[in-house]
Design goal:
Helices cover 60% and strands 4% of the residues. The protein is mostly helical. Strands 2-1-3-4 form a four-stranded antiparallel sheet.
Length: 338
């Protein structure tokens, strides 16, 4: 067992990473609580009121990216804000918008799938003593996959006219899309289960396999990095080429080989900055100006809670679906198709 002195040393050496792991754990526990609360909400209607009623947690809408993408189209083309799953639209709009300045902070700080991927990679290191690197030629082959998936979803939404998009939002299928998602995991099997097992195994060997190559949500958020407002800069004059920055990067970026980290995969986790043994060799910059290493995470969370607070105060967080409508929809959810 590690000594108290060891933990103090780690906290002093990499305070951001310790904070990040703590925040990831807190959000993972929070989302598990949200899942439990949503299950209790579902059970109340599924059992026709035999179990106690639990308020539906609006945060569950964060797991409905397709619905939110359609809602975003409607909002941008007609100015009408989704009232069926408003929290989903708020979260998607914020995460994508924040990506322009703060890169993929969502992915490295609060995404439950990202957290799970890092935990699996840690388990892989415990079992095999390391995570393995994918050959560069295969990285080039795999990287476009998430963008192809993203293009498919975006094209699907773009080809919908505004009237059809509005109709989708009020369709019973969309109204119970969160319930159908829950049912998918409650009755998991077949292709879905096999796919999850394959991703789990790949993630044991190759760190953050899902995030790096397959996640279209992360790909969408990462597009904001095209503007290159925020980036890690390396001082080549003071760099010792120890490669510590590359070794700790969750996205397996070759940080020690570039002057500026412009990759769309960079999640601004600050691992490389804290791992660098030479002061001011790696720095986070905004518009080419050096900023404190806490700038990105602190700004992200301040804006995150401000946006959610404003959404709640202005009535753009909770659904308008009534208790009576849930009572009619949920018992039939498994049979509702689109």
């Amino acid at each position: 067992m590690k000594s108290k002195a060891w933990y103090k040393k780690q906290l002093k050496r990499k305070p951001i990473q310790i904070t990040r792991y703590t925040v990831q754990a807190v959000f993972l526990l929070f989302l598990l609580y949200v899942g439990l609360q949503f299950y209790q909400f579902y059970q109340h209607f599924e059992t026709f009121g035999k179990t106690p009623f639990t308020e539906r947690p609006s945060a569950v809408e964060g797991f409905l990216p397709i619905s939110a993408l359609v809602a975003l189209k409607v909002w941008l083309t007609s100015g009408e804000f989704d009232v069926i799953h408003p929290a989903g639209l708020v979260l998607l709009a914020f995460f994508v918008g924040a990506g322009i300045l703060l890169r993929k902070s969502f992915c490295s700080w609060i995404c439950p799938v990202g957290t799970a991927n890092e935990l699996i990679a840690w388990l892989g290191r415990k079992i095999f003593k390391k995570n393995f690197d994918i050959p560069q030629w295969l990285v080039w082959f795999l990287t476009p996959i998430k963008y192809v998936l993203l293009l498919f979803f975006i094209a699907m939404v773009i080809q919908m006219d505004t009237f059809s998009a509005k109709s989708f939002l009020v369709d019973p299928y969309n109204k119970v899309s969160d319930v159908k998602m829950l049912l998918l995991f409650l009755n998991i099997g077949g292709f879905t289960l096999k796919f999850i097992i394959v991703i789990f195994i790949l993630s044991l060997f190759f760190r953050n396999f899902w995030c790096r190559f397959l996640c279209p949500y992360g790909a969408l958020i990462g597009l904001g990095s095209i503007f290159r407002i925020t980036k890690i800069q390396r001082n080549e004059d003071t760099c010792t080429n120890c490669e510590m920055c590359t070794k700790v990067c969750p996205q397996r970026l070759q940080v020690h080989k570039v002057e500026k980290v412009n990759s769309l995969n960079c999640s601004a986790c600050m691992s490389c900055v804290e791992a660098c043994p030479v002061k001011d060799t790696l720095n986070m910059t905004v518009a080419n100006k050096k900023v404190n290493k806490w700038f990105v995470p602190v700004t992200f969370f301040v804006l995150f809670f401000i946006v959610i607070g404003i959404a709640k105060m202005t009535g753009h967080w909770d659904t308008i679906i009534s208790y009576q409508e849930w009572k009619e929809l949920i018992p039939e959810a498994r049979y509702i198709g689109h």
